[in-house]
Amino acid sequence: MKQKTLVTSAWPYVHSLPHLGNLVGSILSADVFARYSRLKGEDVVMVSGSDEHGTPVEVESVRLGVSPKVITDRNHAKIVALLKAWGISFDNYTRTENPVHKEFVQKLLMEIYERGYIFAQETEMLYCEECSRFLPDRYVEGKCPYCGYERARGDQCENCGRLLETTLLIEPYCAICKSKPVTRQTKHWYFDLPKLSEQITKYLLSNQQLASSTKNFSINFVKEGLKPRAVTRDVSWGIQAPFPGAENKSIYVWVEAVLGYVSATIEYFMNRGEPDGWKEYWFNKEARTYYFIGKDNIPFHTIILPALLLASGENYNLPWQVSATEWLQFKGLKASKSQKVGIWMDEALELFPADYWRYFLIATRPETKDSNFSWDVFIERINADLNDTFGNFVHRTLTFVNSKFDGIVPQTSPSDSDSIQVLKTLGEKVQTVTRELEACKLQSAANTIISVSRVGNQYLNEKEPWNLIKKDKEQAASIFSVAIRFVKALAVTSSPFIPHTAQELWTTLNLSGKVEEKNWDEALKPLPLGHRIQKATPLFKKIEDSPEELAEKLERVREKLGKTV
Ligand SMILES: [Zn+2]
Ligand SMILES: [Zn+2]
What we know:
Blueprint: E1 4-9, H1 20-39, E2 43-50, H2 55-64, H3 68-85, E3 92-95, H4 99-114, E4 118-128, E5 133-134, E6 140-143, E7 152-153, E8 170-174, E9 182-191, H5 197-206, H6 212-223, E10 229-230, E11 232-233, E12 250-251, H7 253-271, H8 279-282, E13 288-294, H9 298-311, E14 321-325, E15 328-330, H10 345-351, H11 354-363, E16 371-373, H12 375-404, H13 417-438, H14 442-463, H15 465-471, H16 473-493, H17 499-508, H18 547-560
Parallel strand pairs: 1-2, 1-13, 2-3, 13-14, 15-16
Antiparallel strand pairs: 4-5, 4-9, 6-7, 6-8, 9-10, 11-12
Helix pairs in contact: 4-7, 5-6, 5-9, 6-9, 7-9, 10-18, 11-12, 12-14, 12-16, 13-14, 13-16, 14-16, 15-16, 16-17
Bound molecules: zinc ion (2 copies).
């Protein structure tokens, strides 16, 4: 029985396009991991979708005077096209407006309600008399009661990551008209999280995969005391609440976005005509579920999602691994549309091919501390790593085989100790990449792959086969038989990271089919006897622009795309 692996990424909020920070933490990380898992021969399903409901879209629709769906239809279509251009290999990228999702959320919440984990209660909510509406979540902003951050949103503080209630904000103001709200009575339905504290702690302690920082953060979070969390909202844009007496309420968006992982799997198998297929991923205890997210999303995946699944009493699989990244910052700041800080996924592709970004983002993935984007580092990584190391090694090897051996891979097996040693190193490095990928240490894995080509380059520099060939063709042939094994290993192992380039390399090696559909073990298998490769062309182009020129180009791209960012 093949390993069932569900790979998910946080649902991008469709209010705007994902920026590089969203990509590196969730979407791109999930893609690299899913591609690697497929190469290992696992049954992988990778899902996510556009998170459409919630107050930011509604707030904007009020401001623009259009229906919220006009905004989400447009942005969802854009995101779908861009994900394809980035080479993101979702099996199902769906949206929260899809009927399968709505039906699943209502059904699961009713189960939780009937099992006594959801209760109704009168409560005081902030109300804007200017706008004549309640102010849930992002309809209100103010000062964080925990860290003092001035622009905390009603649902969560961006700065310290804590979940908030609007009534906790100090000096709150209406996000639409900026006026000071009053409090009013309303009735809401609450998820009884405290009832599940013990079960969640047990789950957290038993999970051996979670990074210790994620695990400790979550355990402390539970220890500080969980509070019941409202699952309904006084808004019209969303999923109708299914509880008796909740006719004018919508489901609060935090509930449905995490449940989308399940509904997206259901929808995927429905579309394949296998309506029960999803159960293999959600109930079979051998299956593994992976979640790739930014650190602000940790409590939703290590506490709230497990709590919802536990409360249903249906024995769902709880998250096997939650891989959370720190933040990718820009000039020390978090990406922000309003402050013109950051680079968005559409802009990036106007400047460089997807693989340049994919490599750069994963090779600098903020795994232990926040990282800072700069054009200097970008240029350095692309030029030094991709162009001068990976690209140069592959190109010199392939062009030499083309010109000196008529494109036929030399088969002489090396007998000198250097060559035997360097092949041993290759084997060890591939093992290291494997170990790093298994542990979701994607940043190290990307850098180890570059070091494979660095070792290959050093080997060629020391052996100087271009001189050797003049006196000893046999010896030179043996060196290239080694080098070409490095090239093949690079084609396979780099494929989760830079899939377009890896395929180009695979084709130049004159190997059939798609490298992404082959097996990870192919990395260390030599090419067949008498194999002929194709003519090589350089895989990358050196960046000649200065950091200042690139910053200017980005400005022009923004103008061209007609963006107000
Ligand atoms: Zn805070
Ligand atoms: Zn207002």
